[in-house]
Amino acid sequence: MSGAILIWKVALGSIAVLATLISSAGYATAQEKSIVVASTTEAQDSGLFDRVLPIFKQKTGITVNVVSVGTGQALDAGRRGEADVVFVHAKVPELEFIAEQEGVKRYPVMYDDFILVGPKSDPANVLGMKDVAAALRKIKNTQSPFMSRGDRSGTHYAELALWNKDAGIDIDKQKGPWYTSTGQGMEATLKAAADRNAYLLCDRGTWISLKNRGDLQIALEGDRRLFNQFAVILVNPAKHPNVKREFGQALIDWLVSPEGQEAIADYKIDGKQLFYPNATDPNA
Question: Does the pTM exceed 0.70?
């Protein structure tokens, strides 16, 4: 084999290796263009993320991997550095998360409301009431079955506040066999309540999206204390260097942008809007 031919073959081989390396590097970069969002179950169970996250990915190329848990567990995942972003709905724990310097900044995104759901037989006779605290007292006094998520989720925090603060009932001390905690998400707790003909506090988005409701109906709605605010927070990369700050902030910026807010508002089931964007509300 002549020297010229040998040099040519070595050159071709080197080019092939370099092309492979470049291709592999490009593949690795594409693979790394992703983030983990620890999120309340409502955003996932309602179908919202299935609607809006593909729009975000198409715009940015960033894949969002959602870990659907209760708000308390989502914040804990952030504290452990296991998520880049948390999407949650319990303002007091969120502000504590920021105060601990576990999160960078809290951004309001959207709201819906909670509803009190119960069996059509309505053993506590609360159907049509407008005062949720009075309704909870009737449920307790009649010892009608009540199903709690019991999972430190935003819904669970809201429920405990309604029992303890608004209804004046220390539910941990005064609950009986009529009060059951599932330790599960909203959809699973709804199904359990349907099986037991029990009352429960539910977010409207999951209620609308869930078709198999058994014998349950909306017993009470419209009380201002049932307001349900959602927010998004970047996990602090200063404490957790593995956090993908650029990609995580890109998601946050998109969610609160006019385009992201419109995508949220446009999400409907059977013509019903599930969530209402309010990123521009300074008091949210």
Answer: yes
User: What number of other Cβ atoms are within 10 A of residue 13's Cβ?
Assistant: 10
Q: Is the pLDDT of residue 97 over 60?
A: yes
Q: At what angle do helices 258-266 and 48-60 cross, to 10 degrees?
A: 150
CA–CA distance, 58 with 211 (Å, rounded to integer): 30
Q: Which of 209, 211, 197, 212 is nearest to 117 (CA)?
A: 197
Per the CB < 8 A criterion, the answer to whether 209 and 269 are in contact is: yes
In the chain, the domains with their CATH numbers are: 32-111+230-277 (3.40.190.10), 113-226 (3.40.190.10)
pLDDT in tens, 108-167: 999 999 999 999 999 999 999 999 999 999 999 999 999 999 998 999 999 999 999 999
* CB-facing half-sphere around the CA of 222: CA atoms within 13 A: 8
Cβ 273 vs Cβ 75: under 8 Å: no
Give the containing element (helix H, strand E) for 219. Answer: strand 216-220
| Residues whose CB falls within 8 Å of the CB of residue 126, separated by 6 or more in sequence, listed in order | 116, 118, 135, 138, 139, 199, 219, 220
Is 219 within 8 Å of 117 (Cβ atoms)? yes
pLDDT digits (tens, 9 = 90+) for 160-194: 999 999 999 999 999 999 999 999 988 899 999 99
